Backbone:
């Protein structure tokens, strides 16, 4: 009996040490926590996306999910960017802590792609061989998975630095994981413009996945916490609201639906949405973000912060810098940048108007309607190949992020009766 006791104690100690800090990530059913957190952008003006993801890493780690079960994807070009006056530092709120410190990044730079994201999510090690750390989610039928994606978006897609992930491709991957019993339950939080379009009418309610998004399928998400010293926005409204809630709440007592209601109320610029298996709303947040109380004692004072539509962040930043310019030369240089931004937007808008006109045979009424309204309806069979052709031949979103804001026009054209992808692609070829 004594030998058995010693053996059991030794096994327990070994298990505790293997999980780090004695924090066991196991769920009530014996399953494990897994997490995949992604910032899908680059460039200093997108500072907030990587700050969001670094903060998310600490939320999960502080609540007991071991680092080896958290996979991080981010370009990693912000903390030491030449435009960042505080090298090696990212903050997610004014006067906040350095959330960059201690973050283990698995996939950086050119490896931040939809293909790597899906491979990491689905546990396909062979597809990430030689890329980053090569780590993937190695989950089983008893495990819980938390996915947090932060970036730009458009109807039916979210962006990566050099390409896009389309909604149907993402949903297909999720269905495959369910069929292969790769998880017990999964929760997905998406911060992006039109992010509701990634799930609406697509995510089944019977595959044990619950998703929330920063916006519905036809509106922008919002950046917040502008910092005059850093000359950029520090966070995204939906993202900072769920993380600041998770930092201070008892995640074993707070349910997913409770957190959703808090975030929905405080994200007061866009319409936060929920999709999938609504019965999962009663589950504790801790079952997905870590079921240990954080060791950090955090109190967040209320901040009256400006929140700006994601696509207008660059305009806001330039306007602010112009207003605070210390010399006429600096003011003039910034004004040139601002005027160029407006010129680029006008070029993109005009280009899309011509595409719509060709696709609709210059029917002025139909063209006007296509350019005037936004909808959540998407004819994916037409829209998806049309967008792919547009990005390949006209505008790469990484180079012209505003181009994502005019995709609603292609969406409307594809919703026209009897419209085909071939017709839209032909119109794109005439313009680009």
Residues:
């Amino acid at each position: 009996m004594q030998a058995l006791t010693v053996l059991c104690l030794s096994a327990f100690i070994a298990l505790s040490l293997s999980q780090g800090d004695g924090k066991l990530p196991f769920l009530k059913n014996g399953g494990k926590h897994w997490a995949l957190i992604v910032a899908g952008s680059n460039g200093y003006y997108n500072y907030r996306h990587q700050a969001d993801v670094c903060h998310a890493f600490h939320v999960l780690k502080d609540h007991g999910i071991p680092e080896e079960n958290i996979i991080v994807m981010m370009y990693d070009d912000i903390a030491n960017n030449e435009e960042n006056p505080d090298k090696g530092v990212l903050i997610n709120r004014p006067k906040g802590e350095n959330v960059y410190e201690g973050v283990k990044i698995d996939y950086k730079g050119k490896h931040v792609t939809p293909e790597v994201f899906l491979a990491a999510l689905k546990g396909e090690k062979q597809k990430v061989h030689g890329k980053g750390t090569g780590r993937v989610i190695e989950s089983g039928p008893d495990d819980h998975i938390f996915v947090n994606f932060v970036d730009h978006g458009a109807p039916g897609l979210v962006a990566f630095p050099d390409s896009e992930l389309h909604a149907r491709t993402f949903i297909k991957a999720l269905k495959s994981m369910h069929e292969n019993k790769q998880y017990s339950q999964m929760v997905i939080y998406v911060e992006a413009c039109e992010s509701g379009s990634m799930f609406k009418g697509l995510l089944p309610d019977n595959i044990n996945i619950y998703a929330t998004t920063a916006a519905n399928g036809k509106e922008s998400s919002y950046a917040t916490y502008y910092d005059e010293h850093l000359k950029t926005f520090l966070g995204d409204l939906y993202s900072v609201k769920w993380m600041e809630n998770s930092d201070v709440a008892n995640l074993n007592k707070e349910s997913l639906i409770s957190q959703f209601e808090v975030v929905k109320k405080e994200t007061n610029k866009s319409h936060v949405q929920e999709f999938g298996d609504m019965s999962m709303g009663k589950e504790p947040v801790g079952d997905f973000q870590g079921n240990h109380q954080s060791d950090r004692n955090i109190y967040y004072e209320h901040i009256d912060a400006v929140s700006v539509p994601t696509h207008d962040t660059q305009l806001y930043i330039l306007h602010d810098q112009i207003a605070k310019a210390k010399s006429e030369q600096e003011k003039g240089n910034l004004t040139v940048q601002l005027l160029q931004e407006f010129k680029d937007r006008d070029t993109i808008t005009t280009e899309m108007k011509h595409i719509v006109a060709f696709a609709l045979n210059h029917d002025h009424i139909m063209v006007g309607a296509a350019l005037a309204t936004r909808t959540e309806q998407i004819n994916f069979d037409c829209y998806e190949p049309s967008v792919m052709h547009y990005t390949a031949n006209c505008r790469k979103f990484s180079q012209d992020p505003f181009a994502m804001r005019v995709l609603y026009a292609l969406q409307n054209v594809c919703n026209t009766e009897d419209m085909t992808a071939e017709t839209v692609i032909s119109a794109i070829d005439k313009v680009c």
In short: The radius of gyration is 23 Å.
